[in-house]
Design goal:
Layout: H1 2-34, E1 38-43, H2 49-70, H3 76-85, H4 87-100, E2 107-116, E3 119-121, E4 124-126, E5 129-138, E6 145-151, H5 166-174, H6 178-183, H7 190-204
Parallel strand pairs: 1-5
Antiparallel strand pairs: 1-6, 2-5, 3-4
Length: 212
């Protein structure tokens, strides 16, 4: 009986140790990803076909402008600083787009930390979590969201081909460890896939301190 209790305690301690090792690993990767990307979040007024189409118009014009002002950005911090310096321009572009499409919705725009679901961009997948982002809310902002990555510019992926430009991959790779980059690169390795699932589990279970 005593030996049985000892085995139970030993197994329990091993489980606790394994949990905290996995937790520390996932938290480190989550923080590194958060520190490496700056995302875009556009929320439509509603889920009507007209409002959803407007959301994409606003998105396209915002991204086209971002291309013109961010080509010299080499870090996430530089990208956020650039966007901060042009916030009035971003809001005007969104508002002008809304008006030109025949709507009278107001628009709210801000930079902050927001929750994102797991999302794939071509052959790059980012786990769910809290990320810095530029958020644009159209009208009542009760419609479906649209997410992407402004830096590195994964937003500019050709969605029809599903190909991420090598330059964008390289910018992201430069700011992550080799393992972290491999983890989000849709690798077929079973060990890498397990680690990505582990990352998603902790995030979706609200177990990371990065969650609000």
């Amino acid at each position: 009986m005593k030996n049985f209790k000892k085995w139970i305690i030993l197994i329990f301690l091993i489980c606790i140790y394994t949990f905290f090792c996995a937790y520390s690993y996932v938290q480190a990767i989550s923080n590194d990803l958060k520190d490496s990307v700056f995302r875009l979040h556009v929320i439509a007024n509603s889920d009507s076909s007209e409002d959803q189409a407007l959301k994409y118009k606003v998105r396209d014009n915002i991204l086209n402008y971002m291309k013109t002002i961010s080509f010299n950005c080499s870090t996430k911090e530089e990208a956020i600083k650039t966007v901060n310096q042009h916030m009035d321009d971003f809001k005007k572009i969104a508002q002008d787009t809304i008006v030109s499409e025949g709507f009278t919705y107001d628009v709210q725009i801000e930079i902050g930390e927001f929750e994102f679901p797991s999302k794939s961009y071509g052959d790059i997948s980012l786990p769910a979590g809290i990320y810095d982002a530029l958020r644009i809310k159209i009208g009542n902002a009760n419609g479906h969201n649209w997410w992407c990555v402004m830096f590195p510019p994964l937003c500019f992926v050709d969605i029809t081909s599903g190909i991420v430009p090598e330059s964008s991959k390289q910018e992201l790779k430069n700011q992550l460890t080799d393992e972290e980059f491999t983890l989000i690169s849709n690798a077929s390795d079973s060990d890498i896939n397990f680690k990505f699932k582990l990352l998603e589990f902790f995030t979706n279970s609200d177990l990371l301190t990065a969650k609000n």
